[in-house]
């Protein structure tokens, strides 16, 4: 059969209209290449001038990957719990039930903790026989790092949930995208000092930079950096308060306007 260029063009035009009407989709197309370029660009730049850095503390990169996954899954745990309610068109039912909005938030945070433990613990245990590296060797500070990164993930997840509630499911990709916006300035694989001066100021405004600097300090045999942890705690309280308030306010407005009944796939 001879293909119809008109019908093919119509389908292409349809998807172009979808892209034009959804800024998250447009941003995402250029987002991943830019983030990967920035993160691995800084990583390569650092290793080029510190080739013996990894050998001084075996497992430092594995520890960084595992702790980063705590924040990533903490964010997804909140975001996906909320998205599942939207996909199943259940938000309207929840809004007319005795469930209070803050109780919904508490349930999403609890599910995030459960999802994160299920997701990260097997990888943490597997690293012991495979690479002879135990994240548990960090001792009690590991729990503090875990809680801090979980709190950061929760703040991002609540922010994503508020955006999805406001802009609809066209913004659902932010559940995976937004958390990686912090990757270049989080200092996961390299110290914050590698960044340009102006970007270092940005990095210190977010909790992950303090946590990963603290992790590396311990692994290199330095004293536990309590000041870094205190900065991370203060920032997490600030961001959790802001995103939590924004989500509850957005949920309240959506319920008053009857928007919850129309949410879903």
User: How many domains comprise the coordinates?
Assistant: 1
What's the tally of helices? 12
**Broad shape:** globular
The helix fraction, in percent, is over 70%
In terms of structural class, how would the helical and strand content be classed?
Answer: mainly alpha
Distance between the termini: 34 Å
Largest beta-sheet details:
none
Please summarize what this structure is:
This protein is mostly helical and 265 residues long. Helix content is 75%, strand content 0%.
Features:
single chain, 265 residues, mainly alpha, 12 helices, 75% helix, 0% strand, globular
Topology summary:
Elements lengths: L4 H16 L2 H27 L3 H4 L3 H28 L3 H5 L5 H31 L8 H28 L6 H4 L5 H4 L10 H7 L3 H13 L6 H31 L9
Helix pairs in contact: 4-6, 4-7, 4-11, 7-11, 7-12, 11-12
Structural summary, described in words:
- The protein has one domain (5-262).
- Helix content is 75%, strand content 0%.
- The model has no long low-confidence stretch (mean pLDDT 81).
- The longest helix is centred in the middle third of the chain and has 31 residues, at 101-131.
- The chain is mainly α and 265 residues long.
